[in-house]
Amino acid sequence: LCAAQVDFVLSVADMRQLPGTDYPEIAFAGRSNVGKSSLINALLNRKKLARASNEPGRTRQLNYFLLNEQLYLVDLPGYGYARASKSEIQQWTKLTLNYLRGRPTLKRIFLLIDSRRGVKETDEEVMDLLDSSAVVYQIVLTKLDKLKKSEQEGLAREVFEKLKKRPAFHPIVCKTSSEDGTGIPELRAEIASLI
Ligand code: GDP
C-alpha cells in the first residue's frame, strides 16, 4: 500500500452512481475536522488527494479512490459539525444507510476519533447505525501527537473499555498522527490484510 497507485474514481451523491462491486472496499468515517482527509492523504502518501469535509458541497458525497486496482477506499462525508441542520443530518444518515446496505464488498469501516475530544455522542449514534448494519468498524484515534505519551495508552484503553461490548466493534484500536506519521504503517498493514 505504501507505493499505492491511486486513481480517483468518482464522487457519489446518489446510490445509482455507485461503482460496481469489483473490488473489496473500506470506508473512512468521522466527525468533520477529525483529521480524516489528513489521514487519507498520509496513508496514500499524497498531499491533497482527499479534501477537507467542511468544503461546501462535499458533505453529501462519497468519494471513491481505487488503490492499485485492488481496493476501493471510500471517504464518507464528515458528520456532527456544529451548524448542521436537521435535514442535513437526515441526509447524511440516509446516504450512509443506503451505502451500508448496498455494499456487500465493504470489508470494514475505519471510524476516526479525535484524540483530544474522545468518543462523542454523535460518534456513538453512528456506531449504533453500524452495529445495526453489522458492518465491522475499527476505531482510529487521530492527532495523537497532541497527547503526552502517558495519555496515549490510557485513551486507547478507555476507548476500548467503553466500546468493547458493541456487536460490530473491532477490538484493535489504531493510534495515529498524520502530523508525525505515528501508526500510519500499522494502519496500512491493517488495510493490506483486508485485500
Ligand atoms: P477532516 O475535516 O476530518 O477532513 O479534517 P482535516 O484533515 O481537514 O483536519 C482538520 C484539522 O486538524 C486541520 O487543521 C489539520 O491540520 C488538523 N490535523 C489533522 N491531522 C492532524 C494530526 O495528526 N495532528 C495534528 N496536530 N493536527 C492534525
Automatic annotation (TrEMBL):
InterPro entries: G_ENGB_dom, GTP-bd, GTP-bd_ribosome_bio_YsxC, P-loop_NTPase. Belongs to the TRAFAC class TrmE-Era-EngA-EngB-Septin-like GTPase superfamily. EngB GTPase family. Its cofactor is Mg(2+). Residues 22-195 form the EngB-type G domain. Signal peptide: none annotated. This is Probable GTP-binding protein EngB. Necessary for normal cell division and for the maintenance of normal septation. The keyword Magnesium applies. HAMAP family: GTPase_EngB. Keywords: Cell cycle, Cell division, GTP-binding, Magnesium, Metal-binding, Nucleotide-binding, Septation.
